[in-house]
Amino acid sequence: MTAERREALEIWLHEHPDHAKAFRDMETLMASVAGLRSLGDLEPRPMAPLAAPRNRRSAIAYIGGSRPGRIALSAIAASLAVMLLLPILLPRAETDISTTVAEIRLLKLADGTRVTLGPKSRIRTSVAGSERYAELIYGEAFFEVAHDRSRPFLVNAGDTSVRVLGTRFDVNRGVDRVSTTVLDGVVQVREEAPLFGSGPRHVLGAFQQVETKADVALFDARSASGVVKVDVPPGEWREGRLTYANARLADVVDDLNRYYAPGVRIEDPKLADARIATTFMRDDLEAFFANLPLILPVKIGRDSTGEVTISAKK
User: Fold this and answer.
1) What domains lie within the chain, and their CATH numbers?
2) Which of 18, 71, 107, 241 makes a 20 to 30 Å CA pair with 260?
3) What's the first-to-final CA gap in the chain, in angstroms?
4) Which residues form the FecR protein domain (predicted)?
5) Is the pTM of this model over 0.90?
6) Sorting pLDDT into bands at 50, 70 and 90, what band is 309?
7) DSSP reduced 3-state for 180
């Protein structure tokens, strides 16, 4: 084992008590097969017609027969055991959680951070050693990050990365956009682009928001909007209220589809960018469907499965 690997192993062993236990378990397993090394002291039986004469040992037998050889063989076996067994013995620090339609879950991470996962959402988290990390695969999550100056908390949502030390903020990953909104504290948001590298950093304070693309295509440039001020406290959905101010209809429909199982669909693509301001309770979605034609020139339809369609009024 090289000095570099030995140092890495030492660091890993001290990161978590479970790591040391896993390594001891591996040593116990290795000890249980230590008797196999004695096979190196045995003379291989000749096998006619290809076997070597009895006064010659095979290369493997010779390596195991001498003391330095046994040490080398042990080192090789131990190295192989580390490579093969560590992925099995190591405790997985990563957690993958998802919710169904209309389901909300509160997650408590090992560092004291609390994450409220919205309906029809999925998140992957990892808190171990110097790492505090979450990946919002889809949906919405409200983060209450425990303050730790030495370990920034990182959130990835597609090609958008969010970096904080300790604050409360909301990340909503829709079909094509990611919105990051801060309740208190300071958040740094950056959008990645495959051919253009990291974009400019957007530093958000309380009641500020920035929108980025959910996934940046290969030849796309960065597309983050400027930081805007919001009047609605982020995370109100945790208490059952959905409030929108100057929101795209498509973004509102994205949210509705997390609460309404039959689904909501915009039939006319031109309506997607229409802006609306509205508020309603998550357990009274019918109020939204009834009021939308009063806000926009649209009509509401519903098929036999319950799916709601929004189309332009002609």
Assistant:
1) 3-89 (no CATH), 92-235 (2.60.120.1440), 240-314 (3.55.50.30)
2) 107
3) 75
4) 96-188
5) no
6) very high
7) strand
